[in-house]
Amino acid sequence: MIPTEAAMEIRRACQPGRIDLDALGAEFQRTGHSLVALLRGLQAACKGTGGEFVHYGATTQDIQDTAQALEMREVLNEAERDLVMTVRRLVELAVTHRDTLMVGRTHAQPALPITFGLKVASWIDELLRQGERLGQARVRVLVVELFGGAGTMAGFDGRGRELLEQFAARLGLAAPAVGWHTARDRVAEFTVVLAMLTATLARIADEVRVLSRPELGEVAEDWEYGRVGSSTMPHKRNAERSAQVVVLAKLARANAMLGMESMLQEHERDARGLRIEWVAVADVAHHALAALAILREVLQGLRVYADQMAAHAYAAAEAICSEALMLALGRRMGKQSAHALVYDLSQRAQSDGQPLRALLLARAEVASWLGAAELDQLLDPARYVGDAGDIVDRSVRRAQHWLVGRQPGAVDLPHSSAPKCTL
Length: 423
What we know:
By secondary structure, this protein is mainly α. It is built from 17 helices and four strands. The protein has helices at residues 4-13, 21-31, 36-45, 60-96, 116-141, 160-171, 185-211, 240-261, 271-300, 306-315, 317-320, 322-333, 335-352, 356-362, 364-369, 372-378, 388-403, and strands spanning 101-106, 109-115, 219-220, 303-304.
């Protein structure tokens, strides 16, 4: 399409140090254009007539969109590496605390007995789905753009498709079927997927923050002498890192909204939506990667107080074992009737400050159905965690399968991991 000598000269001109970067600032100011100054600087660095073929048939957004796709790939690479390390740590926690008894809470109130391993299994399960989303997004999002001013490839002398596919192969990106100058769903998906990932990280972090309150004291962020929680209250050990992850998730969500806004564009080119992306893509990437790094640090040093968890479960045993009690009585008197009975007695126990066990045994029909020994078993929270252990085991196996071949802390994911097919 262009003389070989011109192509080689342009290549030489692109080497570091050949372009006068200091001169570009004034040219940007003079032209008011986001790329022309660089193109003219590249042209000036070319000898002979080679510079005449710079940017041949392409348009500014072709270059910027492709560069952004390369940037998004680097972000996804790093997010996947950090996610692998996070899941590995959660698997360790789930295995260690598979049977660690604790209070399960719904609507901020004691509900039923669970295990800490089950809580961690829920985190793992959600993060694995986020990992799937990251992988699926790579296929749709990481594509080149090289379609010319209005998407027709008219400047490429009928060889646009061939050029596009070779261009994509050189960069390790996919070649789209149609230009996407104003079809911005790919970029919007990138921002939304990262915002969703960060929201999951925030759910985990906020649970750490809440469970670390002194009145609960079931977990805590690692702490070392010298960390300061307050400039005025020397005793403070705030769950600062967990709180920061929640803040980052809110910021990421705001940028996902900007990513959606960028989808509303007119005709074949529209800078109004495009320039929103320049903020949204960079910021959501920063927020997501920062949240991953911070939460990984929190989880690595997480202190789990199993004895405190169990103590809270036994202190709330009469409340969190009400379902077990109701179902046992239901086998004698019917489930709905048993619910009414246990409701009446448990609500009275809470209002009057009386033990539920005493109120139960004071009812002749209950005493005839449930002896003291059986009642003790029904009010033992450790006996009513259902299939929690099996659920943890399944979650761990799924995570271990997902982790196969994924090495933590790798320098980079190879370009071969990017989709090569023509979409």
